[in-house]
Amino acid sequence: MRVGSGKNTYGWNEGWASVPESDSAKTGWAHHGLVVTQAGDVITFHPSDSTIMVLDNSGNLKRTWELPVADAHGITLVQEGDTEYLWIADNGRKRQFDIGYDYPPSSGPYSGKVIKTTLDGEILATLLKPDVPVYQEGNYSPTFVAVNEERHGGNGDVWVTDGYGESYIHRFNKAGEYLSSINGEEGQAGRFACPHGIFIDRRRGDGELYIADRTNHRVQVYDLEGRFNRSFGSDFLSSPSGFVTHGDLLVVAELRARLAVLDKDDKLLCYLGDNEQVCSVDGWPNNRNASGELMPTSLLEPGKFNSPHGMAVDAQGNLYVAEWLIGGRFIKLEK
Fold first, then answer.
1. Which superfamily does CATH assign the domain made up of 2-334 to?
2. DSSP-assigned states of every residue in 62-131
3. Given this model, what pLDDT does residue 108 score?
């Protein structure tokens, strides 16, 4: 099956990933990211267990390792010299099957954090909640990381979105020292509402911060010093959640059941796998049984998305998408 149109046509392959079968894989509510390494391996997270999985580009499981996180919500790959590393945003909590897919009870704020690891799971650095007034009572629940990599002429700054907490974005230097924050009020578009993903776009040369301002149905664009440049997408985006680029193309993952393909000027070219009507189903991204309990959706269809969340692209332009739902679903769109 093919999706898209013209030059932006992809083959739909949802059977490529060999995730080991287990009760936890079937019942876990997947809510994670993924990346593709220079070697073409796909690194992602288990639907339930605190386990990183490494697959080859044919979907075969190569190895795993345990990671002390609630969820690898956002995974970002960086390269320093000849070595690749992962930055992982842990939002600090995860819905659990054995309590009806509620969040575990907590007596205090969320335990969100950001960690840097090797590709073998060694933790090299941890970025904790910034000491800023908004967290005196508010929650810190980071969702994604972007790094101004030195290999691209950057200064190593690390930008962290607190998408599920107070809708702030924090800037750290390469040593992990907190520098500053933005929340949208300093710009012309207004306050962020669930800044779910962040990405440094270099299609025009100088990098810009692309912020998936999801609940506001738009993308806000800042420079790498945290100054507002512009916003776009409110007329054609419903739920921007994350970004990848390949050549001049920008692909936006929309949680509400589609990907949006944009040109170099951020104009919409087409949607991929558009299935927004599924989002009106009771219990979406899952279903409910006669008793009102959440259960895996029965509405998955080839060629149609349900809830794109994590996304990555390889050197050939193939797209990899991890969906947000009970049991998870990994889809490869083959260029």
1. TolB, C-terminal domain (2.120.10.30)
2. EEEEE-S-S---EEEEEEETTEEEEEEEE-S---BGGGTTBPPP-SSS---EEEEEETT--EEEEE----
3. 62
